[in-house]
């Protein structure tokens, strides 16, 4: 659980042996799961200190320790599967993923795939889910009814109906069989990129980059290319192939496009913009702030003293603006100008820098 995790619990902790009084390391979740997978629930409730240690593990696949005179680097070649809830427990489709989920962009951009699981009413999926949940309570492992004497007879039929529905959708693989299959693939199959697959990856990455060139937005970054390579290798391993072919690359590109379309679509323009994931702000939103900052400089230049209050600037912007401009946007534009040392601010009065 993200709420109960800590930096030491994720990486490693230093403990002192009671008799010898010597210090030694105890591996955390990321170290113990080397070569496996770490599942984190309530990722949005994780503390900033615990999140900070994930940056190195997700980027370098290692964990660096410097505690009690012990300095070392431990392997953390681990996949991370995390789930997070939106702010106020409700997803707002009018906002970006960064605005809906309280996670830093620097951490969110390190995930290969980001999917939105929205609870939309749909009779078919609702019926399957309800039958599955009711089936968990309708029968016990020993075959007795969960409801005791008052339980309805034939409760196991709920589970059978659910299995029949799933069987009609495709082959149902048992849990143990699937576990053994994945374990065998991980241990014995190590696919390599072929020349054809390498060329297909390059072409797919260039095409993804070209999609945002006309809009002056970034639709793919080198991290997406690394994600495509990992996904293609995983797809080949799933099929027990020793070489990555063009079909594996095609499936990796499809998965990437679906995830990107969901997570990196700018709600203002409806276009894919990786700046949303990388920086937390789309190129269109940044352009609006830049235009507002330029307008504020013009307004300050029109004053006789070159200075005025923030409230007066906001009022002046509203008089000439075509769209509504909030006070928070004015503050953000002023912060950008102060960072560029174009203006100074003191006691609510903004002045042009000398």
| Percentage of residues in DSSP E strands | 5-15%
The helix tally amounts to: 15
* Share of helix, binned: 40-55%
Total number of β-strand segments?
A: 11
Mean pLDDT: 79
| Rounded radius of gyration (Å) | 27 Å
Output the helix-strand order: HEEHEHEEEHHHHHEHHEHHHEHHEE
Largest sheet: 3 strands, antiparallel
Bulk shape: globular
- Judged by helices, strands and strand pairing, the structural class is alpha/beta
Q: Could you give the distance between the termini?
A: 53 Å
Strand order of the largest sheet: 9-11-10
Unreliable residue runs: 144-162
Protein topology:
Elements: H1 7-10, E1 12-16, E2 23-27, H2 29-32, E3 37-40, H3 48-60, E4 62-67, E5 70-75, E6 79-82, H4 97-100, H5 105-108, H6 123-138, H7 156-169, H8 175-188, E7 192-193, H9 195-210, H10 222-238, E8 243-244, H11 246-263, H12 275-278, H13 283-302, E9 307-309, H14 310-320, H15 327-339, E10 343-346, E11 349-352
Parallel strand pairs: 3-6, 7-8
Antiparallel strand pairs: 1-2, 4-5, 9-11, 10-11
Explain what you see.
The chain has 354 residues and is of the alpha/beta class. The chain contains 15 helices and 11 strands. The chain has a 3-stranded antiparallel sheet. Strands 1-2 form a two-stranded antiparallel ribbon. A two-stranded parallel ribbon has the order 3-6. A hairpin with a 2-residue loop joins strand 4 and strand 5 (70-75). It is globular. The two termini are 53 Å apart. Mean pLDDT is 79; it is low at 144-162.
